[in-house]
Amino acid sequence: METYQTAFAALGDPTRREIFTLLVAGPRAVGEIAAELPVSRPAVSQHLKVLKQARLVRVQADGTRRRYSVDHVGVAALRDYLDDVWGQALANFAAVVEEE
């Protein structure tokens, strides 16, 4: 599956979107994320696993803790896809306007 498709599928879950939004503000450990959500730490870990597989987050060891942050490479691939789609939509709109 393409990177952007996996990313969209991962962000299709509202809890994962919320986790991703928290990580946009800065790196956090699982416990820090769980403290802000109505889900357990194991559930947060499972959601982070999906987001990591979709290349939306990355993990880095910080002593005995793991800190999760946004994976800018994966997000850039998603943005490139959206830029292409938006560019095509604008080009199609311009073509229709020019015909009229």
From TrEMBL:
<dbReference type="InterPro" id="IPR001845">
    <property type="entry name" value="HTH_ArsR_DNA-bd_dom"/>
</dbReference>
<dbReference type="Pfam" id="PF01022">
    <property type="entry name" value="HTH_5"/>
</dbReference>
<dbReference type="InterPro" id="IPR036390">
    <property type="entry name" value="WH_DNA-bd_sf"/>
</dbReference>
<keyword id="KW-0238">DNA-binding</keyword>
<keyword id="KW-0804">Transcription</keyword>
<feature type="domain" description="HTH arsR-type">
    <location>
        <begin position="1"/>
        <end position="90"/>
    </location>
</feature>
<protein>
    <submittedName>
        <fullName>Metalloregulator ArsR/SmtB family transcription factor</fullName>
    </submittedName>
</protein>
<keyword id="KW-0805">Transcription regulation</keyword>
<dbReference type="InterPro" id="IPR051081">
    <property type="entry name" value="HTH_MetalResp_TranReg"/>
</dbReference>
<dbReference type="InterPro" id="IPR011991">
    <property type="entry name" value="ArsR-like_HTH"/>
</dbReference>
<dbReference type="InterPro" id="IPR036388">
    <property type="entry name" value="WH-like_DNA-bd_sf"/>
</dbReference>
